[in-house]
Amino acid sequence: MRRSILLVLVVGSFFPILLPAQDRFESIRSSIRAKMQDRNVPSIAVAVAQGNRIVWEQAFGWADREKRIPADENTMYSLASISKPLTATALMTLVGDGKVDLDKPIDDYLGAVKVHARVGNAKDATVRRVANHTSGPPEYFQFFYENEAWRAPSMDETIMRYGNLVTAPGERFQYSNLGYGLLDDVIARISGRSYADYMRHEVFLKLGMTRSAVGIDPALHAFEATRYDGEDVINPVQS
Asked: Above 50 in pLDDT, residue 31?
């Protein structure tokens, strides 16, 4: 909800292993280049995994057009909502350690400000239901940019303003960025570490994802792809 996870983009697929990668993927290369030109895409990094190994990886375009920095296989891109499965992975490490119970109310793990049920019962908004988008909060999203004075409020303030259940927990699926913001807060509170620190040391590094980070890690800044809008204007990176 409030943060972006940057990660090397991996596209999984299956291809026969009889031909060299240079030959097997030539049609894909041509298609990627054509689509990039048609849609004015600055760059993309692609990898194909088969079993436990990468059989092809390649980058296309410029990670930074103005500085003429080409993208490579390790260029980092903002993943936006693809960060949710990674947050869920972090949550499950705490569940595995016995620190979080999926079937307890999310309120049990929040701070002084709790979720408010406008319909249903907040006690039924369990961690499990928050994680699978059935707990009842609205979709909700808000972006914060480096060149703007406005910064993300505390999670307590966010819950106070927007933490309302608008459908009864368990009633139906309702995609919710706010729900994963709640899980972000749970991970930080239960671990006693920042969400970014916990993700780095308990998820990314343990998976060998050394060029992955929550937000803008200064040590990894040189590996980021520059953000552009549809008119090639540089957009400041989200915080």
From this structure: yes
